Amino acid sequence: MEGAISSRPNKRIAVVTGGNKGIGFEVCRQLARDGGVTVVLTARDETRGAGAAEKLRALGVTDVVFHQLDITDASSIATLVDFLEARFGKLDILVNNAGVGGVEYPQELDANDEKVSSLHQFAGLDSNQRLEWMVKNVREPIDAARKAVETNYYGTKHVTQALLPLLLQSSSQGRIVNVSSEYGLLRLIRNEEVRRDLNDIHNLTEERLDEVLDKFLQDFEADALEAHGWPTGFSAYKVAMAATNAYTRILARRHPTLRVNCAHPGYVKTDMSMGSGVLTPEEGARGVVKVALLLDGGPTGKYFTKGEEASFV
Ligand SMILES: NC(=O)c1ccc[n+]([C@@H]2O[C@H](COP(=O)([O-])OP(=O)(O)OC[C@H]3O[C@@H](n4cnc5c(N)ncnc54)[C@H](OP(=O)(O)O)[C@@H]3O)[C@@H](O)[C@H]2O)c1
Question: Residue 4 falls within a domain, yes or no?
């Protein structure tokens, strides 16, 4: 599972979730290559994760070690914590990148299938047209919605909670970067009470976030999304991302010695976007890495889009 790495005593240690492909893979590559960071590339699948770490080493990026992590599995999280404690005794950077789309992709358009790129010409379409195409070509069953909430919000939160003690051991200010999305912006939620509560950062609690997500899933099941002002089109993804953004702000408030931020990578060509994005994974990862490497004393509790600070709303 693990690989050989040169661990110099003062090198920073980063964990990246969902590091086997897409933006996560590129974040691992750039952090290790340009950031001078020892990267623990994690993935839920041993073969895919070990293969990705091997690929990086073959590219000359040697300060990478693989460890299995399914962010929705408590025992998998605990095993990672044990490994980090024993091997490094601290963590400097956590990039919560792993996520799912909260939709069912049509089989014939499976993004792992090379047919996608030849079947659909995105050239000539702007981002909105590409996103519209995506919405038309996916289904949003309740199981996929639950999975998005479970993975993108609760998985991120559980990994973060488990790794907080190690981040607090960092001699620089421990960094948490939640890879987020402009789909999590509050303006997409028409329900005024929800929008107001998620933005009321001085009073917002994790319990309120649980209530919001429970109510969202109830409304989803009751086919009452529009009626109750929830976003539609990648609905669960949008709500889970809004919750993750809000959680980021709660954490930043609670842990002023850490730097806790969200980073939207832009619209990136990956499996999640069925290759429809306008940026390469390398370009998308750049903004995420920039936030991960912000200097001590830098911003915390903020949202960044493509590396630049922007509004949560
Ligand atoms: N692509 C975009 O345009 C875009 C835009 C805004 C934000 N984002 C965000 O960027 C992040 C990366 O997305 P991507 O576009 O690179 O998608 P991707 O290529 O589909 O990669 C998603 C990664 O998450 C992993 N993952 C999913 N569920 C997991 C779990 N339970 N435990 C551990 N790993 C899990 C996947 O592992 P497997 O390979 O095992 O499935 C994969 O490594 C996501 O958080 C996404 O929401 C993407």
Answer: no
Angle at 266 between CA 57 and CA 123, to 5 degrees: 95
Ligand 1 touching residue 24 (CB < 6 A): yes
Q: How far is the CA of 67 from the centre of ligand 1 (A)?
A: 17
User: Is residue 105 assigned to a domain?
Assistant: yes
For the Cβ of 267 lying below 6 angstroms from any atom of ligand 1, the answer is yes
164 contacts 256 by C-beta, under 8 angstroms: no
To the nearest 10 degrees (0 to 180), the angle between helices 235-254 and 206-221 is 170
> Domain span at residue 218?
12-310
pLDDT in tens, 128-148: 999 999 999 999 999 999 999
How many Å apart are CA 18 and CA 35, to the nearest integer?
Answer: 19
Res. 122 pLDDT band, cuts 50 70 90? confident
How many domains does the structure of the chain reveal? 1
Alpha-carbon distance of 45 to 63, in angstroms, equals 20
Inside any domain, residue 168? yes
